[in-house]
Design a protein that fits this description.
Length: 469
């Protein structure tokens, strides 16, 4: 079989529930949907640490955060570690990376294993962004999502010969500060429907949800929203006004992503490469779009951890496949290498999804998937560190609450707290049943699953966690 070409389009903070193929109620994304229609849609793909840099590192290296070292936004990657890209390059693939890298810069942190790389600086800019490549730093006029696609297609156009290639097209959009392209400035001006959990009062949750500085009503300011709210609004009406402004800009940024996904699909079609290319579209994690009153991610709740993942490879993956087994960002590397017929590095910790896709199987990890959010002393979003396990039916989360506090103000410590959700009875995660006697057996069972899943990937429990039942 011919080795496939590989395109990985990754966006930043694009929630699955803002994609048509996932049943979005708030926008349309015809070009992303097209990939799902021609290939597979994953309905239970999760980030193992719902934050930008850590998810990127897990995708590249096929390892969990504590193994690749990128646990937070301020822990740069050691770019010399094995990645799926370095494996592909060693196997004769031409390789390129354009767009948002955001895992540190400088020697040892700049992209490695690529024939060509051209990346935004840190979080990057939407308009007239700066790019860093092996030739140095430059500023380019235009809109980031368009420019990143331009650079990827220009590199592809420059290739000749028959060796296969792999290009990573990694966008900044639709990450904060949500600055759309001018051509989309008037999209989505009609009222955008509110999510049903907008008024969540966090009544049964631990202190963490109440403490988090992620509420649209209180933590999005005029700079985020590019306007002051109209004067004289009640608290409720001002909150709704903020939600609309936030969503308009977010969805406008997504509109340019969708167009640019279409440009890549068209390029592949025009050259007759579509059928023998593994084309993936994913986001580094999910995002709250007003659910529970929030924006942002971080928490192990569904909207935050669910990654959109669609992929087409018509030569091997049947069209219109829907895969509902639990998969994670750690599985991407081995899936790509498997498709390319290249052996995974022994350090990689995921599994190839290709056999399941080809055979129509849905395999879940034995004890559920292991999650850990490491950022702790966070002055900005105040979402505390936690870990947990999610099976098809249940989710258990442990907030260890150790040493939380604002930098420089002295840490404070709470006792650890548990949250347990029955996702069948309560898919919106509004009722924490960790203290409900009816769930005592479920809680005990999940605590053992959590420990097994944690140890299986080489992580350790927090010292404050009580002994297992
Ligand atoms: Ca992100």
């Amino acid at each position: 079989m011919t080795r496939p070409n590989i395109v990985v389009i990754l966006t930043d903070d694009h929630a699955a529930h803002a994609i048509g193929a996932y049943g979005s109620l708030v926008n349309e994304t015809p070009r992303i949907d097209e990939i799902a229609a021609r290939g597979a849609r994953f309905d239970s793909c999760f980030a193992t640490n719902s934050l930008c840099s850590p998810s990127r590192a897990s995708i590249l290296t096929g390892t969990y955060s504590h193994v690749n070292g990128v646990t937070t936004l301020v822990t740069p990657i050691d770019a010399r570690q094995p990645t799926f890209v370095s494996r592909l390059k060693d196997a004769g693939y031409r390789t390129a990376m354009v767009g948002k890298w955001h895992m540190g810069d400088g020697p040892g942190h700049d992209p490695e294993g690529f024939d060509y790389w051209d990346v935004l600086i840190e979080q990057g800019e939407y308009h007239d962004p700066r790019f860093l490549s092996a030739d140095g730093l430059r500023q380019v006029e235009g809109y980031a999502t368009d420019l990143i696609t331009d650079l990827a297609l220009a590199w592809l156009d420059s290739l000749d010969g028959d060796d296969p290639w792999c290009v990573l097209v990694w966008h900044k959009a639709p990450h904060r500060p949500w600055q759309p392209a001018e051509r989309h400035a008037d999209l989505y001006s009609d009222p955008i429907p509110l999510p049903t959990t907008w008024n969540d009062d966090y009544a049964t949750r631990t202190s963490s949800a109440r403490r988090a500085a992620m509420r649209i009503a209180e933590h999005l300011n005029a700079e985020d929203l590019k306007q002051q709210p109209p004067p004289g609004l009640s608290y409720e009406d001002e909150s709704l006004w903020k939600y609309q402004r936030y969503m308009e800009d977010y969805l406008r940024c997504v509109a340019s992503v969708d167009e640019n996904v279409g440009r890549v699909v068209d390029w592949l079609r025009d050259r007759g490469e579509f059928d023998r290319t593994l084309l993936m579209y994913a986001s580094d994690q999910g995002f709250f779009l007003g659910e529970h009153g929030w924006f942002d991610k971080r928490f192990m709740y569904e909207e935050s951890i669910r990654m959109p993942l669609v992929m087409s490879y018509p030569e091997r993956i049947p069209a219109g496949t829907v895969h509902d087994g639990i998969v994670t960002n750690v599985d991407f590397a081995q899936t790509i290498l498997d498709a390319a017929g290249v052996e995974a590095h022994p350090r990689m910790q995921g599994r190839s999804l290709l056999p399941d896709l080809v055979a129509g199987r849905a395999t879940d990890p034995e004890d559920g998937f292991y999650y850990r959010y490491w950022e702790h002393d966070d002055a900005f979003h105040k979402a505390p560190a936690h870990y947990g396990v999610r099976t098809r039916r249940h989710k258990l989360i442990y907030f260890y609450n150790d040493g939380m506090g604002l930098p420089g103000t002295g840490a404070f410590t709470y006792p650890g707290e548990w949250e347990l959700y029955d996702l069948e009875a309560d898919p919106d995660e509004l009722r924490n049943v960790a203290a409900d006697p009816a769930y005592a057996d479920v809680l005990a069972d999940l605590r053992h699953r959590l420990r097994r899943a944690q140890l299986a990937v080489g992580d350790r429990p927090h010292e404050g966690e009580p002994a297992l039942p």
